[in-house]
Amino acid sequence: MPHSDDLLWGAVGDISRFAALLTMAELGLADHLAQGPLDSAELAGRCGAHAPSLRRVLRELASMGLVRVAGPDAYDLTEKGTPLRSDVPDSVRSSIRMLGEESFWYAMGMLPATVREGGSAFMKRYGPLYDHLAANPDVSRMFDDYMTARAIPLTEGLVKRYDFPAAATMVDVAGGKGHILATVLHANPQMRGVLFDLEYVTRHARQTLEAEGLAGRAQVVPGDMFAGVPAGGDVYLLASVLHNWDDDDAVRILRNVREAMNDEGRVLILEVVLPDSEEPHLGKDIDMRMLAIFNGGTERSREQYAAVLGHAGLVLTDVVELGSGAHLIEARRR
Asked: Name one GO biological process term (predicted).
């Protein structure tokens, strides 16, 4: 077990390392270095940076193994740094940029104030997240890219480890740009889909589904899940939705789904399920972001999901591990 001092000072150092990583992502350093080494002055010119400042960041990035020294004042991209490129599969560049975006960075830095006062400092300054995104298209696009990148490994686990009913209609509630729905439909050619989300989101979803050749099998419906969801579905998917809301709001959403679903329908909740132990866990890290950004947003344990489902007239029937720290919770009418 690491010494407590190592743990504490390691966390302090992580702030500096993340700042360097964010600089690498923001300036697109991995893209510029993809074709071979550059000296710091040339790299600064290409990415519009101050060369002496960039040189100091490159020194930190080299210590992290993301770049390497390739000659006097020259640097090259390493294999470890390749996922920071924009043009590679499973790129993490958009995710890093989103987590370091000004409002998100503010939210995490103000976590002590949020805990002290019992309300999100982010919401006091920026308002509800989705209103903030709707009012700031550049941030919204970055957020969509982050959610898409985050969903890729989860979606792969979903289609590999869960048997969808044949010829079913799946309603993807708050389905974003539609990448999860597209993956499920490609893997299940007899299924049809409905993507349901806010009006400003559905414009991007239509583009995604058309580009995937699924416009004939997938309908896009704008609306507010607190007012109701499209009726008649066999499967209702809520992927990274319920953790944004407190128990009362989560129950409201689930009750709307229960009222809309077919008699033999099922609800699929794609979330991180917290362990009962005190071990480190991805869900505990994400829960700090939920605490910082939302009033009431929270990660939950299996028992907590079962309780929320029960209040909505649903019963938890299965929990499937999808990998990458995520789970699929299946529920049906009680």
From this structure: methylation
pLDDT in tens, 89-118: 889 999 999 999 999 999 999 999 999 999
* Mean pLDDT of all residues in 173-202: 94
Are 261 and 233 in contact by the 8 Å Cβ rule? The answer is yes
Residue 179 has pLDDT above 80, yes or no: yes
To the nearest 10 degrees (0 to 180), the angle between helices 247-260 and 302-311 is 60
The CATH number fitting domain 4-84, selected from 1.10.10.10, 1.20.1530.20, 3.40.50.2300, 3.30.460.80? 1.10.10.10
Residue given tokens 């439909």 in the structure block: 185
Domain borders along the chain are 4-84, 141-333
Alpha helix segments (H runs only) across 162-301: 179-187, 199-211, 247-260, 282-293
| Token digits of residue 74 | 């020259």
- Tell how far CA 279 is from the center of its chain: 22
Q: Which residue has the higher pLDDT, 154 or 142?
A: 142
Q: Is-same-fold flag (4-84; 141-333)? A: no
Average of per-residue pLDDT across 126-143: 93
Give the dihedral sign, CA 143/156/171/210: positive
Q: What is the pLDDT of residue 212?
A: 96
Its pTM stands at 0.88
Q: What is the DSSP string of 216-245?
A: TTEEEEE--TTT---SS-SEEEEES-GGGS
- Residues designated as active site: 243
Distances (CA, A) of 290 to 107, 120, 271, 298: 10, 9, 13, 6
CATH superfamily of 141-333: Vaccinia Virus protein VP39 (3.40.50.150)
Residues 258-315 pLDDT 10s: 999 999 999 999 999 999 999 889 999 999 999 999 999 999 999 999 999 999 999 9
